[in-house]
Amino acid sequence: MTDYRDKRVLITGGIGFIGSSLARALVAQGARVTLVDSLIPTYGGNLQNIADIRDRVTVNVCDVRDRFAIEYLLRDQDFLFNLAGQTSHMDSMSDPKTDLDINAAAQLSILEACRTVNPGIRIVFASTRQIYGKPDYLPVDEKHPIRPVDVNGINKLAGEWYHLLYAKVYGIRACVLRLTNTYGPGMRVKDARQTFLGIWIRQLIEGQPIKVFGDGTQLRDFNYVDDCVDAMLIAGVAPQANGQVYNLGSDEVVNLKDLAQMMVELVPGRSFEIVPFPPERKAIDIGDYYSDFSLARTELGWSPKIDLQEGLRRSLAYYREHGQHYWDAQP
Amino acid sequence: MTDYRDKRVLITGGIGFIGSSLARALVAQGARVTLVDSLIPTYGGNLQNIADIRDRVTVNVCDVRDRFAIEYLLRDQDFLFNLAGQTSHMDSMSDPKTDLDINAAAQLSILEACRTVNPGIRIVFASTRQIYGKPDYLPVDEKHPIRPVDVNGINKLAGEWYHLLYAKVYGIRACVLRLTNTYGPGMRVKDARQTFLGIWIRQLIEGQPIKVFGDGTQLRDFNYVDDCVDAMLIAGVAPQANGQVYNLGSDEVVNLKDLAQMMVELVPGRSFEIVPFPPERKAIDIGDYYSDFSLARTELGWSPKIDLQEGLRRSLAYYREHGQHYWDAQP
Question: Which residue numbers delimit the NAD-dependent epimerase/dehydratase domain (chains A, B) (predicted)?
Answer without folding.
Answer: 9-249
